[in-house]
Input
Amino acid sequence: MGGTKKVTAAKQDKTQGSKDSKDSKKGRKEKGEGGARKAEITVMVNEKEAMKIIQNAKVITMHDLARQTGVKISAANAFLINLTKKGLVKRVGGYSGHHIYQPVSS
Output
């Protein structure tokens, strides 16, 4: 019963005209041409600075470490996991990826 509405001739002309203008925009600049290239960024945690921050804190999370060292959360998380494996910090709490770490007393 419903079906699609009948489009008037004026609306058909408008839609055809807009398609032509879109095609002309695409013709000016193709994908991948010109523009600024994205820089590849490798983020490394400064170990001395990070260890100083960890040793001065009672507990630390990956978010705290990332904010204080100025790196991405994933880099801080990898650093804390590496320190856990080495035995320099231990996980004392947290849940679902939001773990709390504590420096191991020497």
The radius of gyration is 28 Å. Helices lie at 9-28, 47-56, 62-69, 73-86.
